[in-house]
Amino acid sequence: MTTVPLDIAFFRRFLDRAVEVVVASADHLTELDAAIGDADHGANLKRGFTSAAGAEAVAAAGTPGALLTAVGAHLTNTVGGASGPLFGTVFRRMGKVLGEAAEVTPEALGQGLAAAVRSVRRLGDSAPGDATMVDALQPAADALAASLADGGDVTAALRAAARAAVEGAEATVPLRARRGRASYLGERSVGHEDPGAASSALLVTALYEATDPELAPRRQEEPGRREEPQAAEVTPDAASAPAPAPGRVGVVLVSHSRDLAAATAGLAAALVGTGDPAPVALAGGLPDGGVGTSAELVRTAVAEAGEGAGVVVLCDMGSAVLTVKSLLGTGELADARLVDAPFVEGAVAAVVTASAGGDLAAVLAAAEDARTYRKL
Ligand code: ADP
Ligand code: MG
């Protein structure tokens, strides 16, 4: 039986290995995110892990629990993007379960990972099969627990966890994303490995590799070494492909506030990431800059955003909704459809989906989906 101590040295080897592998794989992770997200996952994690490794609180940590907690706090603050709070939760939850012990038992490690996965699922409202990091983390936690229950030593159990995580990440390829930005793509998310699942597999593999002081921090092939992506897998999809004829669906943002409309459009464009955003036109506030809704600005915006494939209109409330509805009722906005969705979330979903080449039905559905997304 291997008896590698799960002490601070083990967890520091893990962190070194995690940083090394995240840096080495950053481009690959970003390519995965370019296909179904906003092409920042590798950069996000690289920033988060390299800065965590250099953080004072991390250097000062004296126990495994303190180290993981400090790394987690740092990831939440520095990663940016959805994976920041999610991975931050994984590390902090594990750190909390490991407590103040100088050396943790394999069983505690197993309980820590299981608790971390529960926390991520709760935070993200996500379950296995949603094509997220949970699809790698849940099988890893299950395999770790099963191997330990079978009498496996910690090295064997972490090897099994790493394999399960890699297989779980690969198994996201045929899945339709149901959480996170990739879910905006609906069916078009099928055929792509989820970036967060891929990075989770790398991190669980790093945990396995830390069981061998000789191997870490050297790059090695087993298990879970990512194969080079197939060309087809990383070919940017419609998000960065030329716009299909007859043009894309346009989006019009109608807000009482000129600034809010502009800022919402800016946020949506930023979340499109790579590629050329679909046409977005604004009807923010009154022509003189005051707060309110102008029918004239709405008409102009709908005309501006139209490329022949339809226009989706997002409103904030009150007079914005009433103005658009009345113009639609009079037939003045022939091409346009009002969508029942929260302004910011619906706008982001609509712009991302339209930019990816979605048709009018797809853009409406994506925006409406934002309405049913529960935050609690
Ligand atoms: P962003 O999506 O904000 O750009 P990243 O690109 O860094 O953030 O991370 C994206 C990854 O985060 C996804 O691939 C997915 O694995 C994970 N993710 C996003 N939302 C959720 C969620 N609700 N539940 C679980 N994981 C999620
Ligand atoms: Mg991203």
Task: Explain what the structure shows.
The protein is an alpha/beta fold. Helix content is 56%, strand content 6%. It contains 15 helices and 6 strands. It has helices at residues 8-36, 41-53, 56-60, 64-78, 83-98, 106-124, 134-149, 154-170, 195-209, 231-234, 258-272, 295-305, 319-329, 343-355, 360-372, and strands at 6-7, 103-104, 250-255, 280-284, 311-315, 336-338. A 4-stranded parallel beta sheet has the order 4-3-5-6, with helices on both faces. Strands 1-2 form a two-stranded antiparallel sheet. Adenosine-5'-diphosphate binds at residues 33, 37-38, 40-41, 44, 81-83, 86, 124-126, 132-134, 179-181, 194-197.
The profile of the biggest β sheet is: 4 strands, parallel
Bound ligands, named by name, code or SMILES: adenosine-5'-diphosphate, magnesium ion
Strand order across the largest sheet = 4-3-5-6
H/E element order: EHHHHHEHHHHHEHEHEHEHH
- Please tell me the total number of domains: 2
Intertermini distance: 45 Å
CATH topology-level name of the largest domain: Serine Threonine Protein Phosphatase 5, Tetratricopeptide repeat
Broad structural category? alpha/beta
Write the layout of secondary structure elements.
Layout: E1 6-7, H1 8-36, H2 41-53, H3 56-60, H4 64-78, H5 83-98, E2 103-104, H6 106-124, H7 134-149, H8 154-170, H9 195-209, H10 231-234, E3 250-255, H11 258-272, E4 280-284, H12 295-305, E5 311-315, H13 319-329, E6 336-338, H14 343-355, H15 360-372
Parallel strand pairs: 3-4, 3-5, 5-6
Antiparallel strand pairs: 1-2
Helix pairs in contact: 1-2, 1-9, 2-4, 4-5, 5-6, 6-7, 7-8, 7-9, 8-9, 11-14, 14-15
The chain binds adenosine-5'-diphosphate (ADP) and magnesium ion.
